Backbone:
């Protein structure tokens, strides 16, 4: 009974043909019935012989007729069944009779950067080349016409290079040949998603297999997509047989420069800027040399690196830039590892020669320090000397910041893209158009700092700025210290406690004034617990202030003094008190100037972020970039890269396709030529492999065939399951046709010509 | 000469004859066509010609004793002669319903009616009668179906041939066949030793036929049997599903003829073989005639065989 059930375990590639087979099988019966109704009448003399012949042969004739009829029905039914291509769903003796197999094979080839590792020795074949060879060997075991192949690459972004599945094995081999080594990261989850789409689409094919060919590195299997990968594997395991080929070798090692960046947010021509490089050796490798370069010229300060196995940060101190604009710095490890490209990491820095800041005052004073932004102006660009006895005269400054103070009435006339940061100092209210301008400015990477003040109308802020994401929360009420009390609110600042990065400058510093500055009035803000707002500094509550010993931790009940939140590519810093001495004594404190610079540095986004990309990313040219013509770009080999214009209204003006080749691209804006750095993803440098158990776990502990770097002998054995019975049945139909012809001639049922 | 021959021979084709409505004209054409191709007539007419001696046995007529041989050898021998009297030819024609079956000429697009087995039989009968009367022999006619429908006594009068052809034209075909019974009747009627030519399809009871033939043979008549069959009956070439409606009320059958062909032909062959065997057993000449074939072939074969047997 069991064997019977197995024999009947069929599926059909095209079930419609099978259904049609029943209809086709009825055709001979219909013809037979019609023929019995359509006859001609003949007057016949020799009736006696006819009747005698009929009497003698009646049973034989009937048997022959039924046999022929059944044969004809069977022929049509079998032809339709053969076209329906029945497949054996299980291993069975019957299935092995069918010569041709049917099924879907989806091959996922990891072509990420780590696959460029030369496996066995320097200059040997890379994992990627081996993966392609393995894929070809796999395809060689498939049967053209019966089995279909689809191919997906796992380099980010994962893509189906051969989809829908093809029965043409030559085309499949060609597709494998056309896959190129990528320098991007691994997107196994994306690859499985693409494979799942193909598998879901090809529902009618028989036995389905998914082959993953990867190097089994940690970067591929243990990343942020682990949960999605696990879920996809669980889903797929219910539909396909999963096989993983692990090309990784146990003792792989690689040295890489993982990051290069300036020590601070601001890089200016007027500062000596510290640069840092993070390097690491993954696996046991020899020492290497680090070499710094600025715009291609070697900088002093490199040297030998002794790897410890952990990430190491090396600093290039005091780098100076003679001109502003985009510069390329690079850190290069000169070693003997087998992945060379990640040994160099480029970074494009937008060096500020002069940082323009727009200070918008809500109150203009009659003297130099009377305006609500006057202290800010002085703090950001302290004068080097006073001009005579007139304290109101304009002062010269050697600060890298160039503040421009305007009233709130002039805000609408300003082109915000000319500034790196806008500071609202006690501005009473803003129109919706001004708020829209500000929101777009911040989203494109600009900085916004908001100070409160007497003119501030909370309802306007809550209705205009809050919905546009320019405020961290609604202003609820104005809080003032008790009347006549000379003790205001204090900042919750403890120099030896954990501080927000914006305050890191004051860490461990006593007598900065931050802890003694008094705030007499501030606007209370309601910050939602789930709001993505960083509290930079809070106020101490009166009870805290009264206590002799301040509590160690920050209570949620405390009102925020300074907050930081992100909007698009820019940041918004909100200070709930004034920027001048109207509500606080802080401007008189020594830390005021430093804090204002830190807030300014913290508010501006990295303006060069869009110029530093990972392989596989697309370049998006911001709309605020000055263009005098349509931009053009060439890759490191001087090959032109197409830039497509984006619809107006968005923050980006142009976009390229994925930039796969690491190196320095050149973007011509008509005004200048900007370098664009494309680096391999740092996580791809980790070529250390994980074992098969970890891979199985990463796939959600589903059933998976774990193989090495070659086809197991079992894979070359003809697979009985999924065999296509189409041809054997067609052959049987042909034999039946021959039998029918023979029987028809033998029985005298054929028409003589 | 060859033109004349060709001109006559075309009238031997049943398809041509089917277009000629007059039976006497048909017969003339057949015979003229036939004779044109012969060197001598197979019938020599009346003559007194010594045949052989045989020993005398008790009961022999002493008028035939050859006295010269007795005188010389002292042995008694009788002289035997070829019969001196004129030939009495009796044409027995089956006019039953089954003889009305015919397909020759019906499917060739011709305007004439189909050439039936009866047409074929009457054409042979008329032709033989014509030839016999031309040679001063007496010719009689018997037409039958279930019963003897018509009987004409043998006569060598030239008007006899006209009467025979007229009668052959008139006889209707409606009834079943009763061959054996009719042959019995004929045997009783004939007083003179005759050459009896029976033209029929013999779709009848073989036992009855045998009894009738035996009766005639007992009366010392020479007999020739012509079984006339239509080509369709011989070949049975039907393809599609066909409803066969039997003549002579023999029922009907809806069948696929291709499947039944072999069985049918086997039955027909068996019947014909039995009939032939029966005839040979009684020293009766048997000839199967295809109504689709030219008549001269059949008649020539018959006359040749007849001539050989008379020698």
Residues:
């Amino acid at each position: 009974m069991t064997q019977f059930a197995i024999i009947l375990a069929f599926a059909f590639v095209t079930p419609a043909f099978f259904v049609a087979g029943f209809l086709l099988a009825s055709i001979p019966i219909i013809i037979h019935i019609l023929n019995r109704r359509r006859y001609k009448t003949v007057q016949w003399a020799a009736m006696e012989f006819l009747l005698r012949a009929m009497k003698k042969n009646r049973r034989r004739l009937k048997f022959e007729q039924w046999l022929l009829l059944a044969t004809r029905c069977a022929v049509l039914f079998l032809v339709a069944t053969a076209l329906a291509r029945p497949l054996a769903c299980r291993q069975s003796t019957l299935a092995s009779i069918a010569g041709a197999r049917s099924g879907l094979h989806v091959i996922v080839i990891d072509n990420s950067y780590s696959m460029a590792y030369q496996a066995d020795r320097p200059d040997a074949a890379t994992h990627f080349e081996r993966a392609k060879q393995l894929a070809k060997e796999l395809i060689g075991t498939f049967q053209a016409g019966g089995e279909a192949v689809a191919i997906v690459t796992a380099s980010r972004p994962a893509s189906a290079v051969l989809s829908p599945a093809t029965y043409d094995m030559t085309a499949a081999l060609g597709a494998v040949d056309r896959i190129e080594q990528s320098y991007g990261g691994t997107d196994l989850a994306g690859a499985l998603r693409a494979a799942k789409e193909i598998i879901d689409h090809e529902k009618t094919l028989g036995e389905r297999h998914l082959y993953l060919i990867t190097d089994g590195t940690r970067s591929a299997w243990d990343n942020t997509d682990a949960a999605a990968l696990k879920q996809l594997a669980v889903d797929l395991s219910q539909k396909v047989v999963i096989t993983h080929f692990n090309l990784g070798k146990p003792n792989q090692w690689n040295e890489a420069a993982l990051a290069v960046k300036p020590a601070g947010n601001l890089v200016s021509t007027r500062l000596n800027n510290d640069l840092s490089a993070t390097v690491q050796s993954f696996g046991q490798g020899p020492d290497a040399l680090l070499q710094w370069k600025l715009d291609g010229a070697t900088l002093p300060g490199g040297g030998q690196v002794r790897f410890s196995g952990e990430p190491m940060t090396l600093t290039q101190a005091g780098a100076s830039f003679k001109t502003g604009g985009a510069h390329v710095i690079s850190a290069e490890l000169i070693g003997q590892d087998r992945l060379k490209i990640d040994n160099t990491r480029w970074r494009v820095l937008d060096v500020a020669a002069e940082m323009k800041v727009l200070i918008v005052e809500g109150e203009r004073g009659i003297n130099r320090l009377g305006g609500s932004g006057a202290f800010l102006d002085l703090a950001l660009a302290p004068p080097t000397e006073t001009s005579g006895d007139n304290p109101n005269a304009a002062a010269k400054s050697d600060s890298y910041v160039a503040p421009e103070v305007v009233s709130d009435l002039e805000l609408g006339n300003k082109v915000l893209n000319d500034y790196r940061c806008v500071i609202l100092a006690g501005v009473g209210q803003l129109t919706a158009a001004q708020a829209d301008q500000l929101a777009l400015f911040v989203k494109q990477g600009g900085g916004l700092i908001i100070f409160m003040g007497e003119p501030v109308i909370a309802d306007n802020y809550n209705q205009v700025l809050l919905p546009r994401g320019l405020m961290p929360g609604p202003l609820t009420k104005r809080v003032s210290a008790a009347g006549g009390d000379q003790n205001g609110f204090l900042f919750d600042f403890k120099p030896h406690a954990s501080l927000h990065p914006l305050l890191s400058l004051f860490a461990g510093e006593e007598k900065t004034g931050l802890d003694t500055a008094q705030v007499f009035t501030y606007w209370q803000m309601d910050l939602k617990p789930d709001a993505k707002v960083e509290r930079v500094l809070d106020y101490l509550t009166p009870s805290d202030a009264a206590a002799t010993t301040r509590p160690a931790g920050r209570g949620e009940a405390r009102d925020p003094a300074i907050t930081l939140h992100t909007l698009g590519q820019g940041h918004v810093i909100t200070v709930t008190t004034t920027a001048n001495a109207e509500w606080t004594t802080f401007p008189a404190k020594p830390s005021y100037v430093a804090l204002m610079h830190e807030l300014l540095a913290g508010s501006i986004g990295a303006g060069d972020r869009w110029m530093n990309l990972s392989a596989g990313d697309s370049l998006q040219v911001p709309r605020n970039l000055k263009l005098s013509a349509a931009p053009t770009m060439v890759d490191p080999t001087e090959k032109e890269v197409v830039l497509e214009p984006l619809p107006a209204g968005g923050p980006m003006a142009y976009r390229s396709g994925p930039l796969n080749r690491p190196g320095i691209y050149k973007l011509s804006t008509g005004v200048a030529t900007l370098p664009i750095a494309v680096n391999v993803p740092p996580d791809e440098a980790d070529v250390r492999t994980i074992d098969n158990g970890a891979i199985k776990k990463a796939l959600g502990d589903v059933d998976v065939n774990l193989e090495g770097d070659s086809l197991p002998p079992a894979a070359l054995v003809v697979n009985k399951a999924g065999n296509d019975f189409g041809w054997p049945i067609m052959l049987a139909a042909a034999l039946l046709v021959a039998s029918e012809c023979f029987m028809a001639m033998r029985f005298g049922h054929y028409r003589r010509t | 000469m060859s033109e004349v021959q060709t001109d006559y021979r075309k009238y031997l084709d049943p398809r041509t004859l089917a277009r000629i409505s007059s039976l006497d004209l048909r017969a003339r054409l057949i015979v003229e066509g036939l004779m044109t191709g012969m060197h001598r007539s197979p019938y020599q007419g009346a003559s007194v010609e010594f045949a052989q001696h045989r020993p005398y046995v008790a009961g022999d007529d002493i008028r035939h004793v050859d006295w010269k041989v007795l005188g010389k050898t002292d042995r008694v021998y009788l002289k035997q002669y070829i019969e001196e009297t004129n030939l009495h030819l009796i044409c027995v024609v089956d006019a039953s319903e089954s003889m009305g079956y015919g397909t020759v000429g019906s499917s060739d697009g011709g305007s004439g009616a189909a050439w039936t087995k009866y047409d074929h039989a009457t054409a042979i009968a008329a032709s033989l009668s014509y030839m016999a009367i031309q040679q001063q022999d007496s010719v009689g006619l018997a037409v039958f179906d279930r019963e003897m429908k018509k009987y004409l006594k043998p006569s060598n009068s030239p008007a006899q041939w006209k009467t025979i052809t007229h009668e052959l034209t008139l006889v209707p075909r409606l009834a079943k066949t009763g061959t054996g019974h009719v042959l019995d009747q004929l045997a009783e009627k004939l007083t003179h030793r005759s050459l009896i030519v029976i033209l029929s399809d013999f779709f009848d009871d073989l036992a009855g036929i045998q009894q009738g033939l035996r009766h005639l043979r007992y009366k010392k008549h020479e007999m020739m049997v012509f079984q006339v069959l239509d080509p369709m009956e011989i070949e049975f070439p039907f393809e599609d599903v066909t409803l066969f409606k039997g003549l002579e009320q023999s029922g009907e059958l809806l069948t696929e003829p291709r499947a039944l062909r072999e069985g049918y032909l086997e039955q027909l062959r068996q019947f014909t073989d039995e009939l032939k065997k029966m005839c040979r057993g009684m020293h009766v000449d048997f000839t199967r005639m295809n109504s689709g074939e030219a008549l001269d072939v059949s008649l020539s074969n018959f006359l040749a065989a007849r001539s050989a047997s008379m020698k």
